[in-house]
Amino acid sequence: MTVNLLTVLNHQLFNVGFFFFTRQMIKTFHWDNPEYVPLIRAIYLVTQVCIIGIGYWLIAVVRKKNDHTVLRYVEASNSGWDGTGGEDQLVNTTNLDYDVAEIKKNIKQAFTGIAIVAFLHLQFHYVQPIIVQSVLGFKTFLLTKEARIHVWGEKTVGDLRRPFRIESPLGIFPEKRQPKVDQGSIKRAEKALKGK
Q1: Over the range 173-188, which residues count as b (16 or more CB within 10 Å of their CB) and which as e?
Q2: I need a surface site. Which of 32, 78, 104, 189 has the fewest CB within 10 A?
Q3: 19: domain range?
């Protein structure tokens, strides 16, 4: 039985174990000492710049492959606060454009993460999130579906098949909100477009 390193690193237990390991390391070596805080901040900022740089490098890799394979799917409409939603939308794109858009979403999430960690650190003087995100940020970005396809060379089957399934942190996401690639859904969306 061979163990796939990407599977191990992507497993939720790895994240939990890494969190507790980091917590013990902080307690053991007293990283929350004010003398170390400027160094930890500098390391955090450098790692975040590197992570965002890797994102733009990944966009360049995707563009170099120039995969213009047509990708058609139906995207579920966004529900309003009252539970009502609009019509599903037919999306006509290419693998190139889809992958670039997904990588840009990941970069935007990285900026959001930086803002949250900065708030926690500056407002409450927490050091642990800075240390954890300095390492987990690389892991998270390099294990995205786009990186697994374009960097690690995995085949676009199963969970790497475009359009990607939407995943929530708790694993709870309604099936009806997932992108649909079946011909029936695409034909219904086309008819709805023609009816407008």
Answers
A1: eeeeebbbeeeebbeb
A2: 78
A3: 5-79+87-194
